[in-house]
């Protein structure tokens, strides 16, 4: 005991106690307290006659915490503590002395700049026989950890309360019977609920069709699992789409309630529905589109297979619509397409769907329909189209042609069903028009590769099967690439890579070359804009114009529009025109002059192979001649080819025209052309036609 207290401290205490009559009692009591609370801070203060308090004994822990040296005995609070602390201590000790009763208080002590210690002090008075308080024993226990834990608990409670109160989602707490106990401010705002919903069943908030789902989710949470899903709330005659979560409220490892967390997703659902509508509906007519047909047809055919009932598919095309569209303008053409859609939707048939397949093509799917039923509907449609369309107070007659294919009689898969109907349509279009025709297998025998290719080619743009490749054109004196010729490529899922030598003549004969040619010009303009965005400069492209395309009255306006839309510098474009397009000199001169006004360059393609006339070299505003590869191929071995090449180069030089030789495949051919001062060339010697990505990579490297 002496060791723990310190010899000096004990002697001072003993000496003072010797003057008291009840020394043995006091000494026993004091040391019991000291022994009991030895790990706490012990302060024994003597009450002086003047009412002040002097230190009589302080244990080691007390001296450390109070920062007292060993000479504390007999000194007051004011001798050893800062004035403010001394006042607070003196007030508390005075209270104990005056009221002669123990008291407890808590205080905070600063340890350093960033840390505090918390203590709880019990002040106990010691009285003499006259009931006067002569000593006050203070025992201070460090409660920092307890205060810290309490603070964390309070902060945790406030944190989770904030999580509920300030949550942007509606949060409802319900008891284990599903009765609403409370809800946050967001619930009031989103769900439009008020206090009258307290003690109401949470299930009553949901649309009846969702009750079973919500009850299952609730039961999972009662069993200690979270759950989530989407449902609809009934909100004062309005429907509210919500994403819900059910979360068990766990207290002492027991589920004592459920949190319902509800997020308003009404706008998201509407947006998703809009996106789905746009994905599967034609933006002009509102009919189902090609994507919807691709999604629906396999399902309808499967149902037909299960029910062992036939299914009819009708492929329809408006007759001479392109001419009408070009004549009336696209706005009026669009109005006709809209009215066509309305008429097709009004046919008298128990069950059908109408799809706009693209352009002026429509498809009708007739479940549970055989040949006779399909023929009846087709006749009805033809009769409908005998009546004119009224557009802007003008009447226009538009006829329609129909091809019909039956599942499973004609085929076993959806692609064949569509293709067979298309073949039947083709037969109608090639004969009388404004009729319907059923597919039959004899059509396959009579339909050669030309028909299949044309049928596929008509879908090539819509099916994203056409691609552009670019063949470098080289300055023969510097060996630098100065431009690229745009070349069309077609890859079909059934026909594979189709040679331009095969499909271009078909496109020419069928008139498809006009729409394909327009697509080529626009795609080339898009690519030029893309290269410019990537910082690759203003690349020059040479684009072929077919004879039919060259004759179109709106050609120049179309090119101007594309240049404006894609920010094309006219100096970036050279149009290659075949000699066959120049037979009508006056018309050709007019069109070429308008093209030159735009600022593009003009080249005569395959010079010497067609209707060549030296007169048009003088009359037409052309910039260059292109020597056909058939002359270059044997220029070193055939004297006639050599003579033709030399003549073309000589004429061009005298007329100030640039010459491009195509089909250069050997170094010897290149050197020969250089000696004749041929300015540009292209061919496999330099590069095969390459996709745009490869050009991008080369230029970036």
Keywords:
701 residues; alpha+beta; Beta-Lactamase; Alpha-Beta Plaits; 4 domains; eight-stranded mixed β-barrel; five-stranded antiparallel beta sheet; 27 helices; 44% helix; elongated
Which secondary structure elements does this structure contain, and how are they paired or packed?
Elements lengths: L1 H4 L1 H11 L5 H14 L4 E7 L5 E6 L1 H7 L10 H4 L2 H17 L3 E8 L5 E12 L5 E10 L1 H22 L4 E5 L5 E4 L1 H7 L19 H12 L4 E9 L2 E14 L2 E11 L1 H15 L9 H18 L3 E8 L2 H8 L1 H16 L7 E6 L2 E7 L3 H14 L4 E3 L2 E3 L3 E8 L6 H17 L5 E3 L3 H5 L2 H11 L6 E10 L5 E12 L3 E3 L1 H11 L1 H22 L7 E5 L1 H4 L4 H11 L7 E6 L6 H14 L2 E7 L6 H6 L4 E4 L1 H4 L6 H17 L2 E5 L4 H9 L4 E3 L9 H9 L1
Parallel strand pairs: 16-17, 19-21, 21-22, 22-23, 23-24, 24-25, 25-26
Antiparallel strand pairs: 1-2, 1-5, 3-4, 4-5, 6-7, 6-10, 8-9, 9-10, 11-13, 11-16, 12-13, 14-15, 18-19, 18-26, 19-20
Helix pairs in contact: 12-13, 17-18, 18-19, 19-21
The number of helical elements comes to 27
Q: What is the number of E strands?
A: 26
Which range does the strand content fall in? 25-35%
Shape: elongated
CATH architecture of the largest domain: Alpha-Beta Barrel
Report low-confidence residues grouped into runs of 5 or more.
1-7
Q: How much is the average pLDDT?
A: 86
Specify the helix fraction band: 40-55%
Q: Could you state the CATH homologous superfamily of the largest domain?
A: EAL domain
What CATH first level of the largest domain would be assigned?
Answer: Alpha Beta
**Widest sheet, order of strands:** 18-19-21-22-23-24-25-26
How far the N terminus sits from the C terminus, by CA atoms, comes to 90 Å
Major β-sheet, in short? 8 strands, mixed, barrel
- The Cα radius of gyration reads 49 Å
Q: What structural category characterises the helix and strand content?
A: alpha+beta
Number of domains: 4
The CATH topology of the largest domain is what? TIM Barrel
